[in-house]
Amino acid sequence: MIREFIGNTPLRHCDALSTRYHTNIFIKEEFHNPGMSAKDRPALFMIEDAIAKKKIKPGGIFVEASSGNTGLGITLIAKKLGYRAKIFVSQSCSTEKIDLLIKAGADIEICENSNGLHDFNSTQFRAQSFASTHPNAYFTNQYYNTQNIRAHYKTTGPEIWKQTEGSITHFIAGVGTGGTISGAGRFLKEQRPNIKIWGIEPNGSILGHFLKQRTLPNDTTAFDPIEGIGRNFIPGSFDAAYVDHIFQVNCHETKRMANEYYSQTGIMTGFSSAAVIAALDRYADKMGFSKTDIVVLFFPDHGDRYISKLYNEHIHRPTPLQTSRHFNF
């Protein structure tokens, strides 16, 4: 069973951040999944749902628009089940992720951007177009697939609640498709309505504006390039009802905190994980943690797939991480 390999990832107490911010900080380490990211969760749910509802026949092609991690999860799971994968990535995707996708057996197309279905040059539009014009191809469409939220509602949220023995007071995660924060946030809010669910996005992203105003901004600009999070459209998998606030950070401070955290702990964080740390550093006073709070930071992947664009040049590429649970592909 593939399900037994995905999820149930560790929750690690972080001494360095707990000491720095005078509270109790835990990190949900999603790089222990087979594809080494949180995206294995929705990838599995979306694939299983499509197969169960006969939206794709055996041997067909699963199609996705992805910054890399969801694409990798879909590719690995599809291959295990006897399907193929066609992944559309934007030109901003890290070379490490592209290498992983190729190694996993994905057919890849690189697109100009990931600006949503309204843009003919976007990953989303081209993925949808491919799926609609090729036989036995199914577009999982993580940005609008309800299974994205459901995966985190059914797995991530309950795991965190159990691992903290119901004592969690804050959940903080980067926001890209919105599936993680919406699904986990909904479950956690159902258990404790006063829990704080906070999102992190890059400067220029519009999700925070939408959360406050429930409308789109009049003008949009390019948002800071923090891979995996931030949007200039509102994904269907973002449910604002379960998010209390979204903080913005810039790319420079995110890179700085990634390197600072690595120097202090020897741990390489992923890009959006570093953005979460950057938000702590920038907004700690506003966040107002107490010494008794239980703060869970969501780290969706590992820094070894961002070395070429995130870490300083003097950092040599480490030996590949060997902590994920692999099933036989």
Give the SSE map.
Elements: E1 11-13, H1 15-21, E2 24-29, H2 40-52, E3 61-65, H3 69-80, E4 84-90, H4 95-104, E5 107-111, H5 123-133, E6 137-139, H6 146-163, E7 170-174, H7 179-191, E8 196-202, H8 207-213, E9 245-249, H9 251-265, H10 271-287, E10 294-299, H11 307-310
Parallel strand pairs: 2-10, 3-4, 3-6, 4-5, 7-8, 7-10, 8-9
Antiparallel strand pairs: 1-2
Protein name: Cysteine synthase family protein
Cofactor: pyridoxal 5'-phosphate
Keywords: Pyridoxal phosphate
Please characterize this protein's 3D structure.
By secondary structure, the chain is an alpha/beta fold. It folds into two domains: 188 residues, Rossmann fold; 100 residues, Rossmann fold (3-Layer(aba) Sandwich), CATH 3.40.50.1100. The protein has eleven helices and ten strands. Strands 1-2-10-7-8-9 form a six-stranded mixed beta sheet, sandwiched between helices. Strands 5-4-3-6 form a four-stranded parallel beta sheet, sandwiched between helices. Strand 7, helix 7 and strand 8 form a beta-alpha-beta unit. Helix 6 packs across helix 7. The longest helix is centred in the middle third of the chain and has 18 residues. The protein is globular, with a radius of gyration of 19 Å.
